[in-house]
Amino acid sequence: MFFKTSPHRTIFTERLILRAPSFLDVKDIFEFCSDPASSKYADWYPHKNLGETRAFVTWLKRKGSYNSYTWAIEHREDKKVIGTISIVESDYSGKILTVGYTLSKAYWHNGYATEALKELVNYLLKELFVQRVQAKVMPENEASCRLLERVGFKNEGLLKKGAFCRTGCVDVYIYSFTR
Ligand SMILES: CC(C)(COP(=O)(O)OP(=O)(O)OC[C@H]1O[C@@H](n2cnc3c(N)ncnc32)[C@H](O)[C@@H]1OP(=O)(O)O)[C@@H](O)C(=O)NCCC(=O)NCCS
């Protein structure tokens, strides 16, 4: 399904706000997008300057009108964007969605990604009536595997050459959360 107008809304959790990214967030987003730890398992390279991050935010904002969508993860108390969480892909029906996420290293190991992903899955299943939320993860990305399992995703096995990263197509675990 290609969303004609974005059906996505701001999502509030106890410590976070998941909302549309803005150009005012460029400095915060640069902080984690310039850190090699954020893109170790991704198909993109660390940002070298604020201009790259600005272009990235422009792309994120445009992306919202297609079959994907990215929320900025704002830390309520610090009033700072500490990560992003996205629908990276949708099937034609809009009932099967693939998600992805990145959190600033300074905020790892505090349960923020768990909090954001739990609430996003809840929103997708209960409000957008999605049937299946899935994620593809490289087996060596243990933090991401742990996160998905903590939220209740099931590991359905290994997809051979199932995702594209910087080194080419790689084997990935496929995780799902179904209605
Ligand atoms: C994947 C990623 C978001 C996971 O971040 P994280 O900090 O491990 O996840 P959380 O924010 O949910 O924190 C969970 C950790 O905090 C701890 N924690 C502390 N308080 C917690 C709470 N209230 N609730 C849940 N966990 C809590 C957990 O025990 C857990 O620790 P552990 O990882 O040592 O077991 C992060 O590693 C990342 O951004 N990586 C780079 C991007 C990436 O690889 N994305 C995924 C591509 S598939």
List keywords for this structure.
179 residues, alpha+beta, Aminopeptidase, eight-stranded mixed β-sheet, 4 helices, 26% helix, binds coenzyme A
Description of the structure:
The chain contains 4 helices and 8 strands. The longest helix has 15 residues, at 112-126. The chain is globular and about 40 Å long. The relative contact order is 0.16. The model has no long low-confidence stretch (mean pLDDT 93). Strands 1-2-3-4-5-6-8-7 form an 8-stranded mixed sheet, sandwiched between helices. Helix 1 crosses helix 2 (50-63) and helix 3 (112-126) crosses helix 4 (142-151). The chain is of the alpha+beta class and 179 residues long. It has helices at 26-33, 50-63, 112-126, 142-151; strands at 11-12, 16-19, 69-75, 80-90, 96-103, 132-137, 154-165, 168-178. It has a domain at 11-131: 3-Layer(aba) Sandwich (Aminopeptidase), CATH 3.40.630.30. It binds coenzyme A.
Topology, pairings included?
Blueprint: E1 11-12, E2 16-19, H1 26-33, H2 50-63, E3 69-75, E4 80-90, E5 96-103, H3 112-126, E6 132-137, H4 142-151, E7 154-165, E8 168-178
Parallel strand pairs: 5-6
Antiparallel strand pairs: 1-2, 2-3, 3-4, 4-5, 6-8, 7-8
Helix pairs in contact: 1-2, 3-4
The structure holds coenzyme A.
Task: Give the CATH level 1 class of one domain.
Answer: Alpha Beta
User: In the CATH hierarchy, what is the architecture of one domain at level 2?
Assistant: 3-Layer(aba) Sandwich
CATH-defined fold name of one domain: Aminopeptidase
Distinct bound molecules: coenzyme A
Query: Ends: how far apart?
Result: 19 Å
Taken from the alpha-carbon principal axes, the silhouette is globular
Low-confidence stretches: none
Helix and strand content put the structural class at alpha+beta
Rg, Cα atoms, Å: 15 Å
Strand content: 25-35%
CATH superfamily of one domain: Gcn5-related N-acetyltransferase (GNAT)
Calculate the mean pLDDT score and round it.
93
Write down the secondary-structure element order: EEHHEEEHEHEE
* Largest beta sheet: strand ordering: 1-2-3-4-5-6-8-7
Number of helices: 4
Give a quick account of the main beta sheet: strands, pairing sense, barrel closure.
8 strands, mixed
Beta strands, count: 8
Helix content: 25-40%
